[in-house]
Amino acid sequence: MKSSPSSPLAGVLLSLLALASFALGSEEAEKAKTTVLITGANRGLGLALSKQFAAGDYHVIGTARSPGKATELKEMADEVLPLDVTSDESIQALAEALKGRTVDILVNNAGYFGPTKGLGPGREKSAQLKSLTRAEVLDCFAVNSAGPIFVTQGLLPNLLQSEHPKVVMISSRSGIINKDSASGAYGYRISKTAINRAMKIMASDKSLAKCIFVSIAPGHNQTDMGGNRPNLLDPDESMAMVKTRIEELTHQHNGRFWYYDGTELPW
Ligand SMILES: NC(=O)c1ccc[n+]([C@@H]2O[C@H](COP(=O)([O-])OP(=O)(O)OC[C@H]3O[C@@H](n4cnc5c(N)ncnc54)[C@H](OP(=O)(O)O)[C@@H]3O)[C@@H](O)[C@H]2O)c1
């Protein structure tokens, strides 16, 4: 038979102790969780991937250019922080906000297609060389190539604090050099080729050997960027698979380019 506390005061003290140790325990449990940071998490694939991680036992940090408007993200992410990947000040502010904290998984997802939305039928004309602008090329590079490079640089101290850090570049098959590219999209395609190259350099950098770097192409999905044709992938389904890919990553995968379904892609 359980012995009961000898006085009401002792009972209260015991309850307080139990509460404190429960609070400490849940604080410890929260600290022990794997932290994943996803850029461009307020809509599209970033939002769908955040949902997948939030449904698992992860601490999810989603970034958005306008956190105030990221209603759906705020409902399920543990934290929503502001980030414009083209701005050094914004990257520095993010690094400052996370100073001293561990980031185990960084998913560089934020992306920009260019002034026309997405690849696909009917969009070829606007992507021809004769109508291409310097701004389109540079803007795509700023978001899709320089963005992930400098976000990764800014969060290196946080990543290197992790026991098993992983950096994922959400890339695209449209960056594959051998792939037929009739639909143009110069800026987008070459910016995805460039981030794959940058990822490969990071993966070979001995000072970063602790970290696993990969590119993952998510497949053609129904999002603002991908369009809404019914034969496109459902972001919830493809991002469930991307989450599994990320969980499965080992150093054997380092420096390689993967499709969301687990097949390896050529450069
Ligand atoms: N959907 C596809 O079929 C497909 C196929 C291959 C690869 N991808 C890649 O998958 C990733 C996500 O694509 P998606 O389809 O989800 O695109 P999306 O629906 O157009 O969403 C793009 C996301 O990136 C953010 N973003 C854009 N510029 C940014 C900047 N300067 N700083 C921070 N965030 C910025 C957007 O934020 P705002 O809301 O503030 O604009 C938004 O959250 C991209 O890298 C894309 O290239 C997509």
TrEMBL record:
Superkingdom classification of source: Bacteria
Write down what this protein is called: Short-chain dehydrogenase
Q: Which UniProt keywords apply?
A: Signal
The record's Pfam families line, in alphabetical order, gives: adh_short (PF00106)
Leader sequence residues: 1-20
What is the taxonomic lineage of the source species? Bacteria, Pseudomonadati, Verrucomicrobiota, Verrucomicrobiia, Verrucomicrobiales
Per the UniProt record, the source organism is Roseibacillus persicicus
Q: Which GO terms describe its molecular function?
A: oxidoreductase activity, acting on the CH-OH group of donors, NAD or NADP as acceptor
Could you tell me which CDD domains the record lists for this protein?
carb_red_sniffer_like_SDR_c (cd05325)
Which PANTHER family has this protein been placed in?
A: SHORT CHAIN DEHYDROGENASE, SHORT-CHAIN DEHYDROGENASE/REDUCTASE SDR
